[in-house]
Amino acid sequence: MVLKLYYDLLSQPSRALYIFLKLNGVPFQQCPVSLMEGEHRTEEFKQKYSKFQKVPFIHDGDFKLIESIGIMRYITREYPIEDHWYPKDSKKQAKVDEYLEWQHLNIRLNCSTFLITTWMNPMRTGKQPSQEKYDSSKKYMLKSLSTFEELFLSDDGPFLMGKEISYADIQAACEIEQPRLAGFNPMVHYPKIKTWIELVRKECNPYYDEAHEMLNMLAESSGKSTKAKL
């Protein structure tokens, strides 16, 4: 049976997996789930598709798995994947894992918190966040972005792990694109991040642009109406 990917391209890890599968020619059935319409919140969805009610997740025959990074690791074991994405060499693989573990409480947490505070919650409730909440969420996001530049964008190579692109680059780029939905573009304020993302985009196209089409459209609209300034 063909692998089924359940995803929403407004979800950062969904985009990362989508790009990864496309780049490596892994055959999969596209199963979009609209988070904006709450398709994942129904009891039917919970019983039929995923008890966790989150995306992305996969069904590979009778085997079901959530969590994008766990899915990526599974895919590299089950399908012929180019080694540089998630190297079999223990030390090289460990360096990819180093970023993937670090990002949970840094880039992912703080970029997501900023987006939820300034875009998602106001859209759901019709109420803007207090200045205190806005300032706090932005402060932690900016700290994570600065730390990311300092720790991972070094002179050892153009990508996070050096001279070759890895899954860590896709994951990080998709997370750092996300605040654009709330009118804040990290690439405007962080030149090293801008250069690196442009390289990731080039390496991953046409699938990078394909995965970010909806985000780009919404970000353009948001940028016209949101005044997010440093």
Choose one word for the global shape. Answer: globular
Mean pLDDT: 93
Largest sheet: 4 strands, mixed
CATH topology call of the largest domain = Glutathione S-transferase Yfyf (Class Pi), Chain A, domain 2
Proportion of residues in helical segments: 55-70%
Structural class by secondary-structure content: alpha+beta
Integer tally of domains: 2
Cα-based radius of gyration, to the nearest Å: 18 Å
Q: How are the strands ordered across the major sheet?
A: 2-1-3-4
Number of helices: 11
Q: How many strands?
A: 4
- The SSE order reads EHEHEEHHHHHHHHH
β-strand amount: 5-15%
Beginning-to-end CA distance, first to last residue: 50 Å
Subcellular location: Cytoplasm
Family: Belongs to the GST superfamily. Theta family.
Domain GST N-terminal: 1-83
GO cellular component, one term: cytoplasm
Structure write-up:
The chain has a four-stranded mixed beta sheet, with helices on one face. The chain is an alpha+beta fold and about 230 residues long. Residues about 225-230 have low confidence and may be disordered. Helix content is about 55%, strand content about 10%. It has two domains: about 5-80, 3-Layer(aba) Sandwich (Glutaredoxin); about 90-225, Up-down Bundle (Glutathione S-transferase Yfyf (Class Pi), Chain A, domain 2), CATH 1.20.1050.10.
